[in-house]
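Can't paste images in this forum, so I'm doing it all in text. The chain is below; anyone willing to post the predicted structure tokens underneath?
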Amino acid sequence: MEITTDMIKELRAATNAGILDCRKALTEANGDFQKAVDWLREKGMATAAKRADREASQGVVELYSHGGGRVGVMVEVNCETDFVARSDKFRELAHELALQIAAAAPRYLKAEDIPAEVLEHESEIARARVKEEGKPDKVAEKIVQGRLEKFKDEVVLSRQAYIRDESITVEKLILQTVAALGENVIVRRFQRWELGERLTD
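Text version of the structure:
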């Protein structure tokens, strides 16, 4: 895969690693952003990624109401210091995350939060579709896995495309803010309510 200048810039913005290190990380990761971040972390070069291990207990609970009160969102975003929690950049991120949750209706914070039975159910649906489409057995499982990944991209907040810039994910947006603020930032939890939605246990 060709490593573009934009890809290097994006990784550099998120990790503060050097240009050559970013190029090498992207080359090693075959252009995969998250794998490149992990590679830089393993080599101890990613300052933004390094901050992920630091305690984040300050922050804000952002409230957002949309459509004349038809959709309500509450999201807790944490950082390391009260100073950063009061900064415009941090507040802006919390607001953007609330907007994202209102607009894109994620169901989970991280992929690991998806219950096994939900993944199994989605796999069954994908398998049934593959069978219906008459795809050959040798590619069927690959297609099922691909559709499962797509499902995760839709329902997991960190994996969703950012509503204002679909070329980046919410996770990358957070990493860019981490690099800019110099502190660890964590989305602790969120809740989204929609008027008239069916209540489930």
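The two ends are 46 Å apart (CA to CA). The first strand starts at residue 58 and ends at 66.
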